Amino acid sequence: MVQRQAAWRRVVGTAISAGISTPAQRDLFGAHTYERVDRPGAFHTEWTKLARNSNAAGVHALN
């Protein structure tokens, strides 16, 4: 993820410019679960908590 951060930001920026919601925006604004294609079930990720923990560990995942 860290190695592909610039590309990820371009994709998210393009999506937002086109008015397309991204998973992170969806979670921020109230959707709490998502499905994965690699395993069954509903999943929830607390993105802001994950970012805080990553930054505290010295990984700049969302910066």
UniProtKB/TrEMBL annotation:
GO molecular function: phosphogluconate dehydrogenase (decarboxylating) activity
Annotated GO biological process: D-gluconate metabolic process; pentose-phosphate shunt
UniProt domain 6-phosphogluconate dehydrogenase C-terminal: residue ranges: 24-47
SUPFAM superfamilies, per database record: 6-phosphogluconate dehydrogenase C-terminal domain-like
Keywords: Gluconate utilization, Oxidoreductase, Pentose shunt
Keyword Oxidoreductase included in the entry's annotation: yes
Entry EC number(s): 1.1.1.44
Entries under InterPro entries matching the protein: 6-PGluconate_DH-like_C_sf (IPR008927), 6PGDH_C (IPR006114), Pgluconate_DH (IPR006183)
Pathway note: Carbohydrate degradation; pentose phosphate pathway; D-ribulose 5-phosphate from D-glucose 6-phosphate (oxidative stage): step 3/3
Record family assignment: Belongs to the 6-phosphogluconate dehydrogenase family.
Protein name stated in the entry: phosphogluconate dehydrogenase (NADP(+)-dependent, decarboxylating)
